[in-house]
Automatic annotation (TrEMBL):
Alphabetical list of SUPFAM superfamilies matching this protein: Ribulose-phoshate binding barrel
Residues noted as binding substrate in the record, renumbered to the chain: 12, 34, 61-70, 120, 181, 190, 210-211
Active site residues of this protein: 61 (for ompdecase activity), 63 (proton donor), 63 (for ompdecase activity), 66 (for ompdecase activity)
Residue span, Orotidine 5'-phosphate decarboxylase domain: 6-226
Reaction catalyzed: orotidine 5'-phosphate + H(+) = UMP + CO2
Family classification: Belongs to the OMP decarboxylase family. Type 1 subfamily.
GO cellular component: cytosol
Protein name, UniProt field: Orotidine 5'-phosphate decarboxylase
One Gene Ontology term of the molecular function aspect: orotidine-5'-phosphate decarboxylase activity
Species this chain originates from: Franzmannia pantelleriensis
Enzyme Commission no: 4.1.1.23
Assigned keywords, A-Z: Decarboxylase, Lyase, Pyrimidine biosynthesis
PROSITE patterns: OMPDECASE
């Protein structure tokens, strides 16, 4: 089932049962869902079948980062399981990203392929520690332009960079933004955050929301509040 909602709910749970318990409260007409490293490592591909069976479009967020041949094979395997979106790390470079894209094209697989620029949990000091002297915004720009030139559909970035990337890479280039925090929510380990409405105004095409919904006392009320914030004039 396809949806026009920008919301992607991160199912960061430690078991298939817990993830499906949340999925059963969600409506695939009102959001997509994201399967990340913890859930996939615990459940394997069964979680994808279970979510597809419930009508959800699934973003498989495994952030592949390896040599081109290995990443191309992993992306192909994800796409053959019918996921709506899969990602790699842009830091793997142009040849890696091109190999992944070409593998999808060769198989006529229509899964969206995007690349992570700079993790939303990272600030300038974190980049410096790994030898990157550019600011997060500068480094995101560089990696997003490389991703665009490699022919991918878009990037994972923070909403703080979305406006600039809209100018650099165009409206159609996907800007999938985690680090979404309603005004009352804790940032936790995230460093480059934005509210849902500000993120959409800045040019995010999709909003990834995890703990502000999944760890809320009333997850459905938290989700409804985000939807209301997005719908308000
Ligand atoms: O740069 C990135 C890339 C991926 N993520 C993932 O998004 C969610 C965010 O969850 P919250 O609980 O809303 O913080 C999570 O699954 C991350 O693995 C990201 O946060 N930043």
């Amino acid at each position: 089932m396809s949806t026009s909602s920008p919301l992607i709910i991160a199912l960061d749970y430690a078991s298939l049962d817990a993830a499906l318990c949340m999925a059963d409260r969600l409506d695939p007409r009102r959001c997509r869902v994201k399967v990340g490293k913890e859930l996939f490592t615990r459940s394997g591909p069964d979680v994808l079948d279970a979510l597809h069976g419930r009508g959800f479009e699934v973003f498989l967020d495994l952030k592949f980062h390896d040599i081109p041949n290995t990443v191309a094979g992993a992306v192909e395997a994800a796409a053959q399981q019918g996921v709506w979106m899969v990602n790699v790390h842009a830091g793997g470079g142009r040849r890696m990203m091109e190999a992944a894209r070409e593998r999808l094209e060769a198989g006529r697989l229509e899964t969206h392929l995007i690349a992570v620029t700079v993790l939303t949990s990272m600030a300038a000091a974190d980049l410096l520690e790994v030898g990157i002297t550019a600011s997060p915004a500068e480094h995101v720009e560089r990696l997003a332009q490389l991703t665009h030139a490699s022919g991918l559909h878009g990037v994972v970035c923070s909403a703080q960079e979305a406006e600039r990337l809209r100018t650099l890479c165009g409206e159609d280039f996907l800007k999938v933004t985690p680090g979404i925090r309603p005004a009352s929510a804790e940032a936790g380990d995230q460093r480059r955050v934005m509210t849902p409405r500000a993120a959409m105004t800045a040019g995010s095409t999709h909003l990834v929301v995890g703990r502000p919904v999944t760890q809320a006392e009333d997850p459905m009320a938290a989700l409804a509040a985000i939807e209301a914030e997005l719908a308000a004039n």
